[in-house]
Amino acid sequence: MNFLTFIFDHTVSIIEAYIWYRLMTNMLERKYSKKVYVIAASMIIVLLSLKTAIFSLPFMENLRAYGSLVIIVYTLIAAIVLFKSTLFEKLIWWGIYYIGLVSMELVVIFFMIVILRIPMTEISNNEVINQTASIVTKIFTLVLFEIFINRRKAKLQIKPSIHRNLSFLVVFNVILLLGSVVVFFNLNNTDNNLITIVQLFFAIMLIILLTTIFLVFKIERDSRKELETKLKLQQMELELRQNKDITKITDNLRKLRHDMNNHIGLIKNFVYAEQYDNLKTYVDEVYSDIAIANEYIVAENRTLSVLLNAKKDLAKQQGIDFQSFVAVSEINIQDKDLCALIGNILDNAIEAAGKSPHKKFIDFAIQKTNSECIIQCENSLRTKPVVKKGIFLSGKGDNDLHGIGTLNIKDIVAKYKGTVTFDYNDEVFQLRIVLPIG
Questions:
Q1: Where are the alpha helices (DSSP H) in 87-126?
Q2: Whose CA is closest to 229, among 340, 139, 97, 142?
Q3: 47 to 52, 75, 78, 131, 345: CA distances (angstroms)
Q4: Which pLDDT tens digit goes with each residue over 242-272?
Q5: Of 57, 92, 55, nearest to 71 (Cα)?
Q6: Element (H or E) spanning 179, and its range?
Q7: Please, which residues bridge with residue 420 across strands?
Q8: What are phi and psi of 334, to 5 degrees?
Q9: Domain parsing of the chain, residue ranges
Q10: Hey, what long-range contacts does 202-208 have (CB within 8 A, 24 or more apart)?
Q11: Beta strands 321-326 and 361-368: pairing type?
């Protein structure tokens, strides 16, 4: 093996290992630190290099398939052991990894045979052509997966109802694709049937890949619809809660107004008789009737009112001092986006403040200037968060900011051409969103 061949082989190995690392660490939930996954990906490079070195020996060529099997099994075991996600999700993304690798290899082979008219035997036996094709294949596969990963900032949600069909599709695709590669690389003739065979296999692969892509996007679309349905149900629940709270407040105020003359008369009698202890007790009783009205947060936006009161009650249950100030009559955001944005901000703040060993508090405000609407939230923390890829984690590594996530907050703000900034120290976290008006 000359130096150039060595470089080519190791470049291919590095790219293939990096593809595994990128896909698995972005699509599955991690269990360990980044270093563990780097080591796991490095082992793929080692195994690929050993496969090239050992099975290139004359007496080992017939056993080359076993080297590939070892690598396939290793990547599967690594996916199962190193990630928290369900076994089904691990199998799905491991299968997609190999579908991407093998299908892109078939595309390159098809291009070389049908378009460039290079015989299959020359592709298999000519070292330069073979290595060039391998590098091109891996680069295109890497680009394809990078596009796929960057388009999805959240992990794909796969419902149990489609597990069986999706499992069958992935397993069938992997078997057929691997089988196709074996057939391609064992063709020892260059007669006219070769082009027909290649075209047939390519057509089959294309149909399967299109079906797979369609299914993945269908899952994504269904997940999005399910989220929208949940948001609508949440809005309905909030409206029912608001109606119940307003009814209670109205009943208390109506009763208070009806009894107001009697209240004033009794208070006057207590004052004239200088019965101040009785006066204090009576005033406390009257005040308790209107306390619920004083505690209820009233905003012009109905959805915002209900949401703030619901989160205030949740914070109160955890011993968190919740203060809010809303000085806007209208917010130019769709109710579903407003519910998702404010709800996620306050959920994050409640979870973080609830863990704080210091004073537990949340200060939330919405104000506006002549040209901007400003949303601010400040809350106490247990420890200074760590930022990784735009996601906030606590100093101990658990996720203190969750829900739809910091990235989704940024997406909603960006949708309305606004900006979001974060500031924090060891005890306090601050969020500030600026949205243009009009």
A1: 87-110, 120-125
A2: 340
A3: 9, 10, 13, 18, 46
A4: 566 656 655 665 666 666 667 777 888 888 8
A5: 55
A6: helix 163-185
A7: 433
A8: -60, 145
A9: 3-223, 297-438
A10: 202/106, 202/107, 202/110, 202/114, 204/176, 204/180, 205/103, 205/106, 205/107, 205/176, 205/177, 205/180, 208/172, 208/173, 208/176, 208/177
A11: parallel
> Looking at the chain, how many residues does it have?
438
**Which tens digit of pLDDT belongs to each residue from 46-93?**
988 887 777 566 656 666 667 788 888 999 999 999 998 888 888 888
| Coil vs helix vs strand at 424 | strand
Give the type of residue at 388.
K
Query: Measuring CA to CA, which residue among 366, 363, 339 is closest to residue 353?
Result: 363
Furthest C-alpha separation in the chain: 119
**From the CB of residue 367, how many other CB atoms can be counted at a distance below 10 Å?**
13
Nearest alpha carbon to residue 218 among 260, 262, 161, 267: 161
Look up the pTM and report it: 0.46
**CA separation for the pair 430, 420 (Å, rounded):** 11
Per-residue pLDDT band for 288 (boundaries 50, 70, 90) equals: low
Residues 6+ apart with CB under 8 A from 42: 17
CATH number corresponding to 297-438: 3.30.565.10
Write the DSSP symbol of residue 362.
Answer: E
